[in-house]
User: Which sequence fits this backbone?
């Protein structure tokens, strides 16, 4: 495993430790080479012999040239297609200041609120925006896409209306929403009816109804009668709506809806060939504890200052497991931030003007079509989308427009839909009407007014939406927020199980190129050869890396990858008549989302115990297999384990489950310790998901975007996710068990960020991927070795080695002197570090994953900080300082607190702010002190409060 010859290669930029530093680290852990370390750490019976079947590595320049070539083979048609994906303009200041700014895209999920106040404020703005638009008091910090958000709404209704078993779906919903929503509902054993709601509600035993507002053909009907009727029957109403339309239309909350949801894509988020886009959901106050995903709340810090945090569901998938409200672990935070900033930048007047612009063009287009003999407009009331009837010529008109650079939607041989977006012009109107055989109505001719139902007051009245309309204001606001946070552009983020490593700029830069970013997901194949070839090549490479037969990149999060894999297993058994196989075995140490995903796949969870060394208890597994026998559908295991160990029993575990007739799901969250070294598809796995936002360098973006490709063995290929807009799929009927079901609104999910993962694999090459894995394992063992005397490593494998992460056990320290893992996490902020993973998978511990991207100096800086904190702990243990008076109990310290006139602590200001000398050269100060977590849950506020709200937190 040699360093590449070219010093300009990508790998030399990606790996933190150079050859000399690697040798120093190897010596400290007792090995003379990376090969020797891997041979000692990874069980011999799973190690890959030979190199991965991948092309030779490209330089950054060569990779970008290839990406340019792919982008050039996409024809960017002006998008008038609609169907949930709309033309929008990303303001350059937001594109460059959020989407392309490392301070935003390299940030982690804001579990540590003190160093996340900037991104939490931005997400609170998003929640406030959604709440004001929808007229409902509680909004979340975003979901994945509109189709899966509908599935989440159905699940929410089924949890709260326990007597019902049937859900009604408005036939006017977008086709992809109907398919995904119906199949997800059927997966949890709900009955689904797709109905014409104009005829009212028929039937009993109803959970609720999902209403389109507007419909997929643009038509607007009053949902209030249906809402009132479902309420009279004990059910709930969810309204799927367009945020731009809500600038004009009455809000769902005003109409009595329980839930409002949709996509915020058209608020400045590029089309991205289908994603990533931030869906939204808002609910009534009584449903706030059932809201899926993340909720940002307002609390106070130790000095009573207003501060933000994740509220209620902070890590509920890990805590509640199969009882969680959803398996979504994070969200689409980066895209939610983009949408919220778009709303701030334009403000209510600007957004209303954009809405009126789209509506005006749609109205004039409809008037022009009405002048064509034999043609007609299908619906009298619409917002921005016009469905027209052109007898026998719809496809010909669409084809003619495509050749002239325009994309419209064909409904059938007679019908077209044209959806007007923000960038549409008079010239566009003329071209669209000309293709239909009409002209733009003369200005002297009165165009019939489309009488929209109108909301009485313009939404978005909060000051945040009325104060940032110049580029200078927005530029500075984004800087202020980013300066409050710790992201990967500032320091190492040593989070176990999360792989916060370098995100290659060569790939990131490409996602904003128009040839990738401006392509509508339903563009015909002949115009998207570049996208489709890049996706196919990425899927082939991932299959080669994992040792599986085939891969689908459709799942738009790791949680969705888990669900897709379990649905494939479930449908495989059902297709064989094994309908009794409904148990999923899950080790105690598994990721929390595993159990939640199993429940969503309608599998019962049975827990397998953990052995003394942290591995799967094989004897308990045998007992569970004996007890449940033919009911076992699968086991979900994470490899290396969540305890950070290469378990040497993995082949035995796989064989035991296979012998019992079950399937083996290997969670790929920790694949950064396997890439190029071992292949789950070859050592016993039937299915895995990968986290491209971990191992394959797509940024975390403050909690999203993510992609969770699902990888399967040959016998499960038929059950991979299907295309949600496949015309052969009829949502009225269940998809036969012999086929897979879609788990996202487009065939390729969040394709927009795939160039990042593609570029990482292309630039690293087979040997580079293996070397990156080896250096990640080396870094973890180096940290474990250096810190073991200060903070014992809880679990290790053969030869005393860990995998790519290690768990530091603070429980003996807590028992001795009360100092907790939380105290250490907060004190690390004063040293300029994001905390490791706190109390997962073992309460009272810290899990550290240094990754391969951190150089020796940064690793040593972290080690030095931890040892310094250990010395501070020892002073408490020795009785020199009382715990309540200690630095650790009071940490972290803001700049304001350090320079305050009063200083009532026994330690000095210098000890608080500058515990090591190097901090005097560069110092990060958090914007708030330690948060009062309980206050935030007792006093739930999840939209932007007025400035005076926290003047007296004691009142």
Assistant:
């Amino acid at each position: 495993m040699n360093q590449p010859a070219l010093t300009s290669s990508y790998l030399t930029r990606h790996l933190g430790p150079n050859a000399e530093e690697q040798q120093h680290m190897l010596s400290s852990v007792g090995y003379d080479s990376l090969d020797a370390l891997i041979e000692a750490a990874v069980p011999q019976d799973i190690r890959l012999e030979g190199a991965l079947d991948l092309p030779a590595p490209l330089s950054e320049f060569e990779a970008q040239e290839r990406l340019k070539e792919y982008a050039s083979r996409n024809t960017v048609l002006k998008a008038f297609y609609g169907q949930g994906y709309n033309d929008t303009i990303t303001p350059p200041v937001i594109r460059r200041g959020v989407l392309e700014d490392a301070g935003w895209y390299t940030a982690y999920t804001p579990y540590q609120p003190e160093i996340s106040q900037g991104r939490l404020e931005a997400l609170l703005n998003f929640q406030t925006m959604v709440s004001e638009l929808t007229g409902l008091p509680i909004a979340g910090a975003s979901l994945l896409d509109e189709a899966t958000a509908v599935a989440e709404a159905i699940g929410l209704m089924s949890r709260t209306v326990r007597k019902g078993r049937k859900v009604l779906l408005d036939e006017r919903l977008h086709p992809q929403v109907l398919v995904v929503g119906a199949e997800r509902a059927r997966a949890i054993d709900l009955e689904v009816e797709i109905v014409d709601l104009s005829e009212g509600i028929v039937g009993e035993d109803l959970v609720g109804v999902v209403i389109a507002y507007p419909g997929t053909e643009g038509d607007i009907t009053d949902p209030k009668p249906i809402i009132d009727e479902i309420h009279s029957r004990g059910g709930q109403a969810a309204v799927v709506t367009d945020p731009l339309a809500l600038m004009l239309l009455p809000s769902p909350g005003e109409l009595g809806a329980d839930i409002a949801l949709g996509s915020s894509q058209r608020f400045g988020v590029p089309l991205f060939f289908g994603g990533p886009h931030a869906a939204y959901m808002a609910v009534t106050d009584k449903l706030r504890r059932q809201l899926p995903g993340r909720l940002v709340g307002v609390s106070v810090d130790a000095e009573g200052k207003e501060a933000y945090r994740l509220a209620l569901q902070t890590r509920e998938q890990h805590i509640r497991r199969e009882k969680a409200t959803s398996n979504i672990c994070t969200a689409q935070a980066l895209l939610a931030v983009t949408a919220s900033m778009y709303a701030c930048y334009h403000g209510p007047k600007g957004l209303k003007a954009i809405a009126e612009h789209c509506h005006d063009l749609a109205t004039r287009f409809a008037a022009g079509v009405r002048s064509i003999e034999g043609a007609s407009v299908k619906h009298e009331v619409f917002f921005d989308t016009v469905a027209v009837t052109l007898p026998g010529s719809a496809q010909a008109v669409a084809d003619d427009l495509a050749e002239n650079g325009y994309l419209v939607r064909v409904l059938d041989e007679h019908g077209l839909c044209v959806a007007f977006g923000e960038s549409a012009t008079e010239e566009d109107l003329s071209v669209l009407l000309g293709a239909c055989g009409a002209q733009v109505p003369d200005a002297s001719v009165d165009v019939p007014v489309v009488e929209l139902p109108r909301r009485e007051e313009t939404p978005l009245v909060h000051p945040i939406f009325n104060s940032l309309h110049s580029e200078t204001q927005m530029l500075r606001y984004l800087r202020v927020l980013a300066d409050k946070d710790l992201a990967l552009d500032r320091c190492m983020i040593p989070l176990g199980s999360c792989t916060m490593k370098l995100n290659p700029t060569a790939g990131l830069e490409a996602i904003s190129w128009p040839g990738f970013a401006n392509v509508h997901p339903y563009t015909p194949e002949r115009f998207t050869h570049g996208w489709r070839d890049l996706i196919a090549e990425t899927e082939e490479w991932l299959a080669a890396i994992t040792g599986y037969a085939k891969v689908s990149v459709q799942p738009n999060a790791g949680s969705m990858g888990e669900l897709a894999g379990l649905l494939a297993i479930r449908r495989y058994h059902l297709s064989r008549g094994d309908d009794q196989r409904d148990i999923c075995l899950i080790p105690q140490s598994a990721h929390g989302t595993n159990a939640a995903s199993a429940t969503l796949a309608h599998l019962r969870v049975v827990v397998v115990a953990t052995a003394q060394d942290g591995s799967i208890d094989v004897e308990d597994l045998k007992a569970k297999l004996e007890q449940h026998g033919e009911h076992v559908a699968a086991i979900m295991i994470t490899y290396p384990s969540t305890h950070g160990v290469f378990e040497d029993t993995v082949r035995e575990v796989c064989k035991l489950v296979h012998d019992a007739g079950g399937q083996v799901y290997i969670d790929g969250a920790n694949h950064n310790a396997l890439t190029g070294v071992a292949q789950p598809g070859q050592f016993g796995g039937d299915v895995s998901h990968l986290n491209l936002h971990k191992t394959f360098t797509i940024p975390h973006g403050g909690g999203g975007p993510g992609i969770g490709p699902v990888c399967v063995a040959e016998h499960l290929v038929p059950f991979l996710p299907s295309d949600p807009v496949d015309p052969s799929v009829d949502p009225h009927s269940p998809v036969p068990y012999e086929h897979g079901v879609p788990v996202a609104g487009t065939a390729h999910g969040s394709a927009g960020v795939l160039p990042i993962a593609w570029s990482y694999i292309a630039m690293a090459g087979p040997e580079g991927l293996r070397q990156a894995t080896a250096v990640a394992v080396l870094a973890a063992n180096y940290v474990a070795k250096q810190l073991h005397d200060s903070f014992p490593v809880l679990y290790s494998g053969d030869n005393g080695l860990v995998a790519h992460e290690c768990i530091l056990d603070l429980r003996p320290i807590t028992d001795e002197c009360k100092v907790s893992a939380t105290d250490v996490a907060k004190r690390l902020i004063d040293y300029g570090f994001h905390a490791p993973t706190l109390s997962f998978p073992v309460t009272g511990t810290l899990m550290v994953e240094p990754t391969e991207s951190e150089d020796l100096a940064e690793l040593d800086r972290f080690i030095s900080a931890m040892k310094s904190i250990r010395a501070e702990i020892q002073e408490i243990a020795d009785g020199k300082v009382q715990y309540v008076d200690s630095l650790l109990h009071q940490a972290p310290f803001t700049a304001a607190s350090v320079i305050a006139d009063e200083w009532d602590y026994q330690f000095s200001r210098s000890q608080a702010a500058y515990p090591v000398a190097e901090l005097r050269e560069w110092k990060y100060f958090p914007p708030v002190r330690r948060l009062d977590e309980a206050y935030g849950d007792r006093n739930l506020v999840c939209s932007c409060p007025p400035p005076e709200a926290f003047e007296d937190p004691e009142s």
Summary: Residues 3-7, 947-955 have pLDDT under 50 and may be disordered. The chain has 30 helices and 25 strands. The first helix runs from residue 10 to 14. The longest strand covers residues 206-213.
